[in-house]
Amino acid sequence: MAAQDLSVHIARWLDSLSLQAGSKLVLAYSGGVDSEVLACGLSEYAKQRPDLRYQLIYVHHGLSPNADNWAKHCKTRAAIYGLPVTVERVQLVLGPRVSVEAEARKARYQAILAHLNPQDVLLTAHHEDDQLETILLALKRGQGPKGLAAMGHIQPLSLAGKGSCLQVRPLLDISRETIEAFAQTRQLVHIEDESNQDDKYDRNFLRLEIIPRLKARWPSIATTASRSAQLCAEQQAIVETEVSERLPKLLAKAAVTEQTVLKLTELAAQPIEWQGILLRGFIESQGFGLPSYIQLQQILQQLMYAKDDAKVQIQIGDCVLRRFAGRLYVDNVTKSFTDNMAGREDCRERTPAIYQITDLNLHQHLLAFLRLSQPITVQPIPPLALVQHGTRLRLPKVDEVVSLGYGLPGQFRCQPHFRDKGRELKKLWQECAVPPWLRADVGFVFYNDKLVMAFGLWVEKAFCVQGDELGLSYLIAKP
Question: E.C. number, please (predicted)?
């Protein structure tokens, strides 16, 4: 492509999006030559489509002493282009084993995505050589088709709590040489980030040392590598379609937490080459990053071949995988409530309360006490209500102290509303399918020294309301 045709190329890409009036095009603007060229093309497109909104966003990481000058440069250039610009300042949290590249990218995207809504489009200035770098890094990490598919021209981008928008890369099939020639022809002023010359960063090493030698030997390697990435993307799309059909049959709702869990017996029945693919699909469907191939094989080994009563708990990145009752649970890595139990006073000693139950207003005080006393780690918290139907706890009498306790011993004997005879708590945990890591979070309501209810699980049979009297309902499990 001739350099002078680049503006037309950008306009055609944007036209292909069929954007509705009022939609916003947001450019991740660094002031480097790539984003400068895209900003120039965007300014020309804005004259054709004044019904759209436009915004350039420069993210100030504070990593370079020149960052303030770069922010001024972006403001100056934006004024020349006639486009609004926003400077977002972010602060990176760095430490041992923390990649500066990865943290900077994460912070940059978080800052930019805050400006986007589902009908908007994020433009990034990735080009053909960036694609080659991404493919080489995927090879270095041993990634499969999904990683080797690298970047797409158009990809959905998740917006936290707001759905998703599109990320578009109009320059992805354009060479660096063409971009630089266009910038020179238009006399575009751009900045040079000094960190781009530091080959301790993987991308810089490839850009400075490896790709020039590859291009010297095979001038079209960036183009042919992009073709391979496209083929991998097509294969990955087929795999994802098959996963979307197979995976739902392996899923269930957990009895207590109501979260989606994976049925391991059904997973084990799948062809061995599909087990890892489906496990990855499940982890990804729960919003977590994917494990490496080696990690995935180790996870499968521990999940499939552990004894039924084995406590399997595996932490991968920001998620923890746990096996219980033939199901796989995936949760965020957070400090377990159980870890805080040591030294904690029994709630029955710490938060006694006496209620003179005489009217509905005081009933509401009782509900508030029980709600506030429950830990927030058991999710979802079911409705706590005063009702006249269904299984429910009788309200306390005037002389009864209402209290809440945790961590009852396994030998504690209970008689839930769904059992004709009493049973030890350790047996009821299994019967109600309460995972071991949540048992310390289950609250037990007492009237004086008598157990009357296990939150979310049962009402003690002797304290169930009879007839149509008003009672307290707080049940999840339905054994």
Answer: 6.3.4.19
